[in-house]
Design brief:
Layout lengths: L17 H52 L3 H44 L6
Helix pairs in contact: 1-2
């Protein structure tokens, strides 16, 4: 009996769908690119909050300077009212931004779970 030479027998892999394999790779690449885009969106969120912390520090410095420069109780009360008014504005902006950022985070997480872990949405 002649044995079949395994070096020259069928160089193709049986039952291999190259088009399907390429499509799965393309979908995974798209998923990776979407996740990277969402990561950069989160980086923008981080930059915003760092800038917001600087605004808070600047406001505290300004308030401190006004209190130091106050010559009467009326000046102190005016500085406190101005500081508190500005803080309330910032809290309102923070609340809106926090909700928006939370929605972005949840969308990114949902995208990761629906397509990132399932191999490109398959």
């Amino acid at each position: 009996m002649a044995q079949k030479d395994q070096r020259t027998s069928g160089t193709s892999i049986p039952n291999m769908d190259l088009a399907g394999f390429a499509e799965a790779g393309r979908k995974q690449l798209e998923t990776l690119m979407d996740m990277q885009k969402q990561f950069f969106d989160m980086e923008e969120v981080n930059r915003h909050w760092v800038a917001r912390a600087k605004v808070e520090a600047d406001l505290a410095n300004e308030f401190s300077a006004k209190l130091t420069a106050a010559h009467s109780m009326t000046d102190v009360v005016a500085a406190c009212q101005e500081w508190m008014g500005r803080r309330m504005e910032l809290y309102t902006e923070d609340s809106r931004r926090l909700i928006t950022d939370g929605q972005k985070f949840m969308a990114a997480t949902a995208q990761l779970f629906t397509s990132g872990f399932k191999g490109g949405g398959r």
